[in-house]
């Protein structure tokens, strides 16, 4: 056991380095010679259009997802630490996998800020799945899961965006629906009938809920950047960010309302606030770049928050009891159902696209409609098929990967010590004892008197 | 009681959605058809001038204000959670109210990144007022307060900026002075003679002070973006950010100095560091875009930090004892007095504006001086009148809204359980018990031995 | 003692204000008159190329360094609070010192966003040194150290960049190597043979390690902005950010691997994760802007993480026992050795520069090679000499400043109360007692029943 994690990390990283050495090149915007060979001004370098958004996305991946999962009382190191590890691995692997499918030029993968954003996006899907198995999987299992999931993500993304021609800039389908149903299937396969032996640790304490709110708020604040990070320059990025902003604001109010109304005593539940308030970002991941209008965005956000809280309250217990799906973070409620809602909203919004509404902007939003390949209805159908494809690949992939992760060689924790940092980390105590604090203060006072 | 919060949230959000559906439209920079109808390059879209600043402001509103208020030992969920709720509501309502007064085109409110920033700004004023009543008001009271305060904010902003022609890009007057004196008047009206029954909870613990420092530092770091977010493109944004940076740095040193010098034993007080060190940002909110110079900015920051600490130390107790103003966060010291200082500095700096100093840049900073409508002295007088108007509307508005909030139907907490999360939230325990931790570790060791 | 800190702060700030009044001016991009006198478009103002990077750097300085050091159980206020104080002082002083050496125009220092970034960079070096003496120095000592270190930093930077013509955009040499060896020499001179009297406080608790992870992650996420903040516009900024991104990702995997492999029981150590995972950013500080390729960046990051963990595990105890270097945060492992590695990588990468690889981009990366002043080998030699010069100035400077700090008038804490907040701060208790919590809840329930 002692060597499994380091050996896995070292082998994976060495493979990555070799493949990068063989396959990866600067694109023309990061290559000193090529950029200076052309006539664009420096301010037209894509860096200035997308880097600020990239950094926001980066914060969502490492702080947002990492701290959102620190709500568990004794799993903070693992939540933020394994999130860090698998994200650092996944973004490298994603660069290669996504490069194979849509960044290949003359046998080389060309990289720049857009590939960095896409790698972070793919990583996001892995971290969503992580939420379902949180506390019940070893870091080696997580790295193996990440390796397979990134690969399947790239396949699904290729089919949805390149083969089917669907639009999904913020990833309602490719990121959220995919990550959620993949993770739910994995956790189903890894079902633990005796998980209640660790039940007392599967809950929060006061401070861990505050740490989790750091994650929630960064996800919430930067979601407009997430959805707009890879949309077309100009009005598209601008509109997508704004639609997401309004969707999230409306979602927050419906989440608070539903949280209080479904509680027997009217008290708010931190689980809902930490999670459901984000569903509005998920649900405009597909349609955010379209002419959804602030009005439409707010309706979508309102519905997403409502569905999400209801899911946490009524559906999650049923999934666990009847379908044996132990979903630690409730990713079905935050990413799964809102992702499906987002896909449907995307299809409906695409169906209503007209030249009157989009003008020449149609080329950016629906290029295949603009050039006459599709009608708006065709586009809508492609969007709907993409949802089905995504669900299919996610569920099938999760099934297979779940069984791979069951192999005993990856070292899953026993049922009695799930949700517990101390099996993976050197863990210090909780607090200096009260007596020591008093001693300390008294010592300090005495010293001062002596001076 | 159980239904008041959800019903309020749902009604408000439904009204917002209906009004957005009726009144709100994309502006020409977010509309696919309109943006592509004109000849600007994509990099001229206002998104690229302002979106990074918007995100910084957004972090200040949700993380900055939210975590700054987590200093209370038992009110962290409410601080960060109600901050989240009322901000999400206020930014939607502000979009409408500000739109009525200065974004109306042919019966429609046009929205884009600048309206998003302005909505966040208006939200900031509400959150300042929240600081005065923190721990003593129910979330329903806060939503009602936000609704009225946003409306009055928009009226005052319209009078100051559009009618009087004053400049106030960072909102020393419109945001900080307004939010502070509105909040102080509300808390005066809501005076609780028996608040000392909750006194033991109106203080910090070690970790809550560290959480609060997250809020402080984000406010401090991003204040240059706040003050420059809506100034004119080019040198104006650049200069405003830099002036604010220097003002804050100087303010930090004077805050530390005054905190130690006013303590009986020379020890620093976290309350001063968390709050007074920010006063430098408030105090250059008006003059930051002017040719204040780094030198001038540092003097202003130095004074603001000094005044602020002295206010916390000597003025706040007097306000509470003599004027019955119970100001939980000391907003008079962080936003009130530094806001007034900022307004005065703005007026003085405007009075000294000459064509020699500003050149053609006068058109950006003082357009009404540049086109000959005003002299620099006229501008200064307008600035001074704006301060008086702001104080008048804030105090009168706070008075009326305070009485509205006193109506028993909004469910204020009793005097004995102020500053306490558990009446609004499902609150978990503080820490896993020491015994349980030991058990856990022992179990882990045993399991390992058995493997 | 009571007056030393405030008097020091006030004197320093007043001197700063006077010097700023005498010497500092807006540069042409922040001056209203000058900017409007020229024909550039607003989007060409350097603000839009660098301000987002500046803000990321700013977050690294105040949140990143500040929270990274909160890992100590009883020194969180001082870690984040003194970091705040000395950074606010150092950035002002650095503006002057760096201005003297390379921003002087007609007797005036011209300031804008680039000087702000450079001031923050210089501040970073001071905060690195702070890490070595953390817990063992008074704030007055720290301010005095900052004053001298900033001055020497500016001298060294001038010699390295301007006299020798070396390149070091991300500061592997000028920031990390300099800050580390300066700090190590200071802590050597301040050696405390009886420091084990405070040993029980020189460690973390569970929550303090989570706070420290906030610092770690912000440093990790924004390091691409740090290294690219002052490189040339266009491909250079773009490439530097990307190289850093890949270096850090590879570094994270090698850090986790080495942490687990060097532990007797295979458990991960938070100290390594918090620190070593960042070494990849340090080690591409010089070569990041060069055509290092993602492949090269990943190799460098991999090595940096490995070296850093090995340093924490095996070298730090030796340095403390044999060389009497008490390095609280292990800055030799995070900044020292990876900084030297970065300098070497920079020299090697420079040696291999050809016109074929760089094309016209050579003018940005190696202007003195492009114009024929140097060959690539000359450049490499200049890079190597710069490392030696940096080490020399840092060690000699640290020696002298260490002895200055030993003067009794700056009030160092006694050996028995190092790593302890309560001698500088009013410190509240750790947690509300369990009994009080129960009382509170019971009161709440009773009140509700009575309503």
TrEMBL record, chains A, B, C:
It holds the Pfam family Ammonium_transp. Residues 42-407 form the Ammonium transporter AmtB-like domain. Keywords: Ammonia transport, Cell membrane, Glycoprotein, Membrane, Transmembrane, Transmembrane helix, Transport. GO terms for cellular component: plasma membrane. It is found in: Cell membrane. GO terms for molecular function: ammonium channel activity. It comes from the Eukaryota. The keyword Cell membrane applies. Coiled coil: none annotated. The chain crosses the membrane at residues 7-28, 48-72, 84-104, 116-135, 142-161, 173-191, 203-223, 298-315, 384-405. Its main location: membrane. It is a multi-pass membrane protein. One of its GO terms (biological process) is ammonium homeostasis. InterPro entries: Ammonium/urea_transptr, NH4_transpt_AmtB-like_dom, RhesusRHD. PANTHER family: AMMONIUM TRANSPORTER, AMMONIUM TRANSPORTER RH TYPE B. Belongs to the ammonium transporter (TC 2.A.49) family. Rh subfamily. Functions as an ammonia transporter. May play a role in the elimination of ammonia in the gill. This is Ammonium transporter AmtB-like domain-containing protein. It comes from Pleuronectes platessa (European plaice).
């Amino acid at each position: 056991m002692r060597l499994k994690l380091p050996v896995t990390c070292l082998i994976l990283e060495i493979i990555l380095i070799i493949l990068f050495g063989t396959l990866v090149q600067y694109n023309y915007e990061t290559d000193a010679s090529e950029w200076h060979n052309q006539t664009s001004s420096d301010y037209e370098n894509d860096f200035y259009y997308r880097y600020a958004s990239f950094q926001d996305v980066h914060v969502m991946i490492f702080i947002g997802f990492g701290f959102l999962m620190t709500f568990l009382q004794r799993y903070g190191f693992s939540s933020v630490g394994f999130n860090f590890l698998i994200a650092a691995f996944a973004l490298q692997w994603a660069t290669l996998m996504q490069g194979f499918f849509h960044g290949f030029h003359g046998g080389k993968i060309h990289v720049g800020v857009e590939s960095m954003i896409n790698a972070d996006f793919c990583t996001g899907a892995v971290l969503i799945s992580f939420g379902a198995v949180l506390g019940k999987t070893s870091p080696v299992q997580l790295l193996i899961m990440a390796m397979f999931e990134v690969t399947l993500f790239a396949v699904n993304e290729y089919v949805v965006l390149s083969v089917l021609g669907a639009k999904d800039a913020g990833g309602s389908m490719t990121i959220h629906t995919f990550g959620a149903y993949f993770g739910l299937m994995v956790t189903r396969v890894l079902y633990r009938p005796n998980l209640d032996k660790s039940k007392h640790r599967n809950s929060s304490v006061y401070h861990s809920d505050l740490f989790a709110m750091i994650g929630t708020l960064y996800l919430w604040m930067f979601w407009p950047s997430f959805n707009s990070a890879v949309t077309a320059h100009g009005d598209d990025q601008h509109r997508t960010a704004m639609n997401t902003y309004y969707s999230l604001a409306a979602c927050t109010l419906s989440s608070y309302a539903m949280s209080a109304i479904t509680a027997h005593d009217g008290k708010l539940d931190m689980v809902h606030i930490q999670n459901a308030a984000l569903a509005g970002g998920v649900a405009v991941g597909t349609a955010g770049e379209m002419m959804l209008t602030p009005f439409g965005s707010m309706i979508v956000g309102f519905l997403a928050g409502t569905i999400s809280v209801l899911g946490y309250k009524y559906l999650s217990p049923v999934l666990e009891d009847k379908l044996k799906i132990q979903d630690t973070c409730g990713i079905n409620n935050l990413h799964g159902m809102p992702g499906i809602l987002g896909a449907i909203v995307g299809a409906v919004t695409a169906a209503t696209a007209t030249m009157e509404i989009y003008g020449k902007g149609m080329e950016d939003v629906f290029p295949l409609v603009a050039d006459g390949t599709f009608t708006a209805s065709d586009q809508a159908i492609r969007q709907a098929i993409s949802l089905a494809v995504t669900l299919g690949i996610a569920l099938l992939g999760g099934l297979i990967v779940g069984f791979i992760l069951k192999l005993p060689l990856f070292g899953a924790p026993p049922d009695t010590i799930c949700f517990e940092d101390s099996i993976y980390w050197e863990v210090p105590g909780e607090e200096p004892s009260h007596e020591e604090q008093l001693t300390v203060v008294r010592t300090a006072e005495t010293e001062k008197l002596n001076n």
